[in-house]
Amino acid sequence: MQFEFSDEQAQFRDVVQRFCRDKSPAQTVRRIMETESGFDRDLWRALCGQLGVAGLHVAESSGGAGFGAVELGIVMEEFGRSLMPAPYLASVLATSALAELGESDARDALMADIAAADTIATLALDPQHGDPICRSVSADGGRLNGSVSAVLDARHADVVLIITADDARPTLHAANAGSDGLTSRPLRTMDRTRRLAELRFDGVVADRLGSLTNRQLKHVYDTALVALANESAGAAQALFDSTVEYVGMRVQFGRKIGSFQAIKHRLADLLVDVELARVAAYQAAAALAADEAVSATASLAKFTTSDACMNAAREAIQLRGGIGFTWENDTHLWYRRAKSSEVFLGTPAFHRERMIQEMTA
Amino acid sequence: MQFEFSDEQAQFRDVVQRFCRDKSPAQTVRRIMETESGFDRDLWRALCGQLGVAGLHVAESSGGAGFGAVELGIVMEEFGRSLMPAPYLASVLATSALAELGESDARDALMADIAAADTIATLALDPQHGDPICRSVSADGGRLNGSVSAVLDARHADVVLIITADDARPTLHAANAGSDGLTSRPLRTMDRTRRLAELRFDGVVADRLGSLTNRQLKHVYDTALVALANESAGAAQALFDSTVEYVGMRVQFGRKIGSFQAIKHRLADLLVDVELARVAAYQAAAALAADEAVSATASLAKFTTSDACMNAAREAIQLRGGIGFTWENDTHLWYRRAKSSEVFLGTPAFHRERMIQEMTA
Amino acid sequence: MSDATRDSLAASAAEVRDWLAANWDPELSLVEWRDRLADSGWGQPTWPAAFYGRGLGAREAAVVEQEFARIGAVGAATAGPRGLAAATLLEHGSDAQKKRYLRGILTGRDAWCQLFSEPGSGSDLAGATTRADRVQSQGEGQAGRAASQRWIVNGQKVWNTSAHHADYGILVARTDWEVPKHQGLSYFLIKMDQPGVEVRQLKQMNGHASFNEVFFTDAVVDHDDLVGELGQGWQIALTTLSYERSGFNRIRGGDRFEGRHGRVYREYERELEIANEPYTWYPQRAGRIDLLLERAAESGAIRDPAVRQDIATAIALQRCANWFSARGLARGPAGSIGKLAASRVARAGNQAHTVISGIEAMFEGDDSPLDGIVGEVLLSTPATSIAGGTDEIQKNIIAERILELPKEPRFDGGPFKDVPRN
Amino acid sequence: MSDATRDSLAASAAEVRDWLAANWDPELSLVEWRDRLADSGWGQPTWPAAFYGRGLGAREAAVVEQEFARIGAVGAATAGPRGLAAATLLEHGSDAQKKRYLRGILTGRDAWCQLFSEPGSGSDLAGATTRADRVQSQGEGQAGRAASQRWIVNGQKVWNTSAHHADYGILVARTDWEVPKHQGLSYFLIKMDQPGVEVRQLKQMNGHASFNEVFFTDAVVDHDDLVGELGQGWQIALTTLSYERSGFNRIRGGDRFEGRHGRVYREYERELEIANEPYTWYPQRAGRIDLLLERAAESGAIRDPAVRQDIATAIALQRCANWFSARGLARGPAGSIGKLAASRVARAGNQAHTVISGIEAMFEGDDSPLDGIVGEVLLSTPATSIAGGTDEIQKNIIAERILELPKEPRFDGGPFKDVPRN
Q: In which band, very low, low, confident or very high, does the pLDDT at D244 lie, cut at 50, 70 and 90?
């Protein structure tokens, strides 16, 4: 299938882009990144208030803003471009899971609080490949036991959602951050703008929100992949653009280094990576929005974009030479994002394999 | 371990190189390649008579010339460089298998005939990865039944050696090409300088020469890998050298295309491929000669050299542009060799896996 | 759409429908039928009425095509360089040239070939060294002087697909060696059937002979067959090339006429066959990604995890490349991005087919899997990154026109006679 | 080996053995001991007798080293740029300079740093813009004129590892802007402890701060500290760089003194620690291929066939790179081949460690596998293809010096003041 952005979607992108430029330039990213929590509630309130990003892609019938995966992709792409330091991906995971549930006061109340930025929510995932079912945590008698490493933004989440496997059907639980027996250990992430924490559940009392089918779990996972793919496409573009700008300015041997054909050709190759990654991300978002079978395309987009982004990050440092390896230079912030997005929700090889499985199923 | 060629070995290489230059320049390769059999007995007699290549690497105690794997590597490298159209690799397979047997009149007579070029011998291999045991052929009561595809130079071999698995221990049999029930169907090989045929055995009477241990079978296989690796190193070098020469001569846009930095850098990268491939091939030959545990290194050399050779072949065509894609241009002869050596005796991926298995065994 | 437009479209539809009812006959010979098209102007309705067309707009032409399709009427000849010659003549040719050549192009009576590339100027097309020298014929100095001027052509062209059965060629030759290379070229129409023109087929490494070399030895061109002004050859060639990029020389399949019978169809199918002959290996050149999964299942390699990785890589690349083109992003310089993507797809296809086939990748022809298709893939993909502008040229275009990085220093700016060349 | 040589070697051995017997004392302070080495010449036996050495040949020196090793005697200070300064001074320095500086280098009393690279001239080392301007001090025109001349240095250097604790620096600065860039540089020895010199540590993306920026604001250099002739700076710098490439600044490990006790050893270990401090991450920078298999077994990723492919690729690359260097092929321009190979090894190591660790590759420091080694690998390998000459520079060297392809057109040939720069 083929798609174009609608005028509304193009305008929405402009709004998001302007917000990112104004509200989180690189120096802001560094400021927040260097705080202990890596989180700025005012920025998050602004994101929810002015852009309405939380629950953006969730249908109104499910308590969301009623936009779709394409708008989600637009936000993620722009956040990747600007390295927006906010718990948005965690919010996407949480709201996507909630959206699969039938209507209920509990769900609707939680969704409303999330959209209003009154509640920050995350969804614990199985660490290895990001499977939404956490097999390392069990629920019995409404109490959660076990531990799960690497939960996104768990440190500043007010509510932790977790899907356990022990009932007849996978079940979604909500635990309040403050609950007795719930302890969180912040992990030192390479990407300081994307925090993870290890959670321990010792008989934590949690709300049993409902159960999900495997199809629904897959949809939650594919949504996460599409979101991350669009973010990586944006990050790759930012790395590419800043590098083209740099080689057009940096002079060595009496000429701009961008005039050296070897560098010109490498940037041409890199542009192909970036462009193909972008269409993959767009196509996956469009397929998700159109409710097509999306798993193969979602995995394709995940590994295509993360490979392109990692490649762009390597070249961005290499073509800057020594200066690109310094802390002061911003390039490593995107390199760190690229490296962690490469493995988050599953490695490129894992998703190549998944794509083949989906295509031959 | 580290090694240098001895003066004798260096002189031997010169002799082989001169022979290849004089006796099989590209036009000779094309002439023989275009014959139906792809084989020139006079050239083969000269190779055995003047260079003594047949049985070269086999110990005198086993009826060989008493040189080692390093000399074998030298011959294979030079033959790869010049695309020598002769059944030498088949002869290496056959003599390596014979060399593992204990002394016997049958073995010694056969080895002597092979060395004297009176007999051309080949060894049938299991097609998939070149395993010396042909499971598709069975021996009972001294009669061979079954068929095996892709036997090297089977069309002009006087004797076909084959190792069957059905006895308590793997057994080496020799069948005369003329035997009743032995039929051979020549296959159209992409590399017309390396012929293969499918053999059918219908109750073929064969000499049971003896049995081999798994260690011995592995040694035969590793020897084949080392031989092919050195051949590929030579072919890669030939492709590289001719390409450097071409870009230093071809003028476009008023300048030698070798003056374009993008091309200069790609050739620099390619030189790294070629140099690393060569040391891998040399190191594997030296380890084989020194009777060290060689399987991991043999597999390493196989995939490193065939990847480098394939890469060199691609670049050799690309940097020549249209002319490199023509039949008249010799580049495709080496491209065809590179492509078939890439998969012969197992793909690069197969040998990467084998190397890890050997290292973790 | 305004009512006026709608009415005029309806009018054209009615008019062509009536004309077809009166003239279409499947038992005519192809040339007889197309002579009617030429006389009526319905074969190329967008061409000027003065030159075998009706001067209609694109919308009307679409309506006409629908009417042809509805009753299965064969259209004008379009396949191959013929289309490029027509488009170029309509833009730059003299009225006399249009009169003389467009009819034969439309009816398919005349086949054409494109004589631009040379052995010494592949990537550097403007570096052509085939020369055309002006001579006066006997009648010198008398009346009809200009008309009696002729050009003598010497040199060599290559990489054209139809010279071996072409009646005419569009030729770019150097007429001035004292000026920079882009200014010294002129654009001619040359008759292929003459003593001074020799055509040899050129065999590729994959065994096909889709291209020709053309040798000129004192070949003759009338001055009347100079297109545009002397020295305008490069600008006019760019016109031809732009039409080539936008697919004016693509060949329409005959499948539209499935199950139709009649002499005109038989002759049309034959025409297509001849036109398509050089291109049978092009799908293999692109890597045949479409065959990977079924082929891997057949060979059993689908069970090998490393092979699955290679297949996934190839399929993903192809999908992205297709999406990229489908989104219409591949126009202008960005076309070079699509072309580089196609090269990656072809390479990945070659790689995947190799590991899927294993030892069977050593075979060619009947002994190669899928009736030789696999072998042909392995021997054809290298052409993808060369034909129609090498990857290196595409990267220059991207770097300089899209990324706006500094241009390469030029060493061929001066008078062409002083420019180094092989 | 001739009898004569054998005798002289035996003689040296005997001589140094006696001297060590009489002088070696592990309870001396490191400086006290090395003062004895400087006085006797046994610390740097290949240096001239006039300058703290004994003018011995390489063979004799080897024998002397053996004798030191036999009884575990600590040698002269060699670590770091100090060794480069010494080698350069011995080749290009004046006798006065040798007298003044070599002793402090040998005894380790003085630490040195290398002040070549600049923010604006990384790959283009000869494009240095740090300036040195000659001034007359008060005593102008009187006796001792030359001696009283001084140089005022302004500018910035970067990428040196020891400026923060160095007493002196070897400095390349521009003294003439009217001539082409290679001809306008001069080579100075500069005192680091002065008001005009400010050293700032420079933090890398992997969190380490191994390098310094050095800012010069009217820093002063005596004319006596000009090495060689004015304008010879580039040639002399090339000498320094060639010694750097052949490892004169490498640091010998202290492991030779395992289990030895005494004040001199304690102080020597401390000296090594300080010298090694900036380099703790260098093994990670190289990709830590040595850890792949054990790490994959530990994480369980060894069971993943795709991961095994990546591990095999990395291990194979490293073995080939090691074999290439071991065969002594990596000398001269071919050193660039080894350097490019090292970059590939580092990249492959990064890739393999990433897929082996999976989600754990998202961590750094204590939360990263192997006490943070994995995270440090992932954040350090990019330096391998940059430090000591970028891959791009290596490829130029290979293409032009090994393959002898045409050189890049130059745009910086004229007077340096007219050369474009940032």
A: confident
Distance CA D251, CA D158 (A): 21
| Alpha-carbon gap, residue A36 to C297, rounded angstroms | 53
**Which of B259, B263, B265 is the mutation pick for testing A, counting most A CBs within 10 A?**
B265
Please report residues of D whose CB lies closer than 8 A to that of A323: 119, 122
Residue D273's pLDDT is what? 87
C163-184 average pLDDT score: 96
What are residue B196's DSSP bridge partners?
B152, B187
pLDDT in tens, D398-421: 999 999 999 988 889 899 999 998
Query: Which pair of structure tokens corresponds to residue D306?
Result: 């795709």
Q: Which two tokens stand for residue C101?
A: 């050549």
Q: Which residue of D has its CA nearest to C408?
A: D409
Nearest Cα to Cα of residue D169 among D85, D272, D245: D85
Name chain D contacts of B271, Cβ cutoff 8 Å. Answer: 337, 398, 402-403
Q: Coil, helix or strand for A66?
A: coil
Taking the C-alpha atoms of residue D128 and residue D118, their distance in angstroms, rounded to an integer, is: 6
- Beta-carbon-side half-sphere exposure of residue D246 (alpha carbons within 13 Å): 10
Question: What is the rounded average pLDDT for all residues in chain B?
Answer: 96
The percentage of residues in chain A with a pLDDT greater than 70, rounded to a whole number, is 99
pLDDT given at position A7: 96
User: Mind spelling out the 3-state secondary structure of chain B?
Assistant: CCCCCCHHHHHHHHHHHHHHHHHCCHHHHHHHHHCCCCCCHHHHHHHHHHHCCCCCCCCHHHCCCCCCHHHHHHHHHHHHHHCCCCCHHHHHHHHHHHHCCCCCHHHHHHHHHHHCCCCCEEECCCCCCCCCECCCEEEECCEEEEEEEEEECHHHCCEEEEEECCCCCCEEEEEECCCCCEEEEEECECCCCCCEEEEEEEEEECEEEEECCHHHHHHHHHHHHHHHHHHHHHHHHHHHHHHHHHHCCCEECCEEHHHCHHHHHHHHHHHHHHHHHHHHHHHHHHHHHCCCCCHHHHHHHHHHHHHHHHHHHHHHHHHHHHHHHECCCCHHHHHHHHHHHHHCCCCHHHHHHHHHHHHHC
Q: Would the pLDDT of D142 be above 70?
A: no
Write down the ipTM of this complex.
0.95
In this complex, the chains that touch C, judged by 3 or more CB pairs closer than 8 A, are A, B, D
Q: Any residues with CB less than 8 A from the CB of C10 and at least 6 apart, and which?
A: none
Q: Checking phi first, is residue D24 left (phi over 0); if not, alpha (psi -120 to 50) or beta? A: beta
Which pLDDT score, from 0 to 100, does residue A4 have?
Answer: 87
pLDDT tens digits, C372-396: 999 999 999 999 999 989 999 999 9
Confidence of residue C255 (pLDDT cuts 50, 70, 90): low
The C-alpha of D128 sits at a distance from chain A's nearest C-alpha, in angstroms, of 11
Q: Do D405 and B267 touch (CB under 8 A)?
A: yes
Strands of B143-152's sheet in order across: B137-140, B143-152, B196-205, B182-187
Burial of residue C35 (number of CB atoms within 10 Å: 0-12, 13-18, 19+): middle
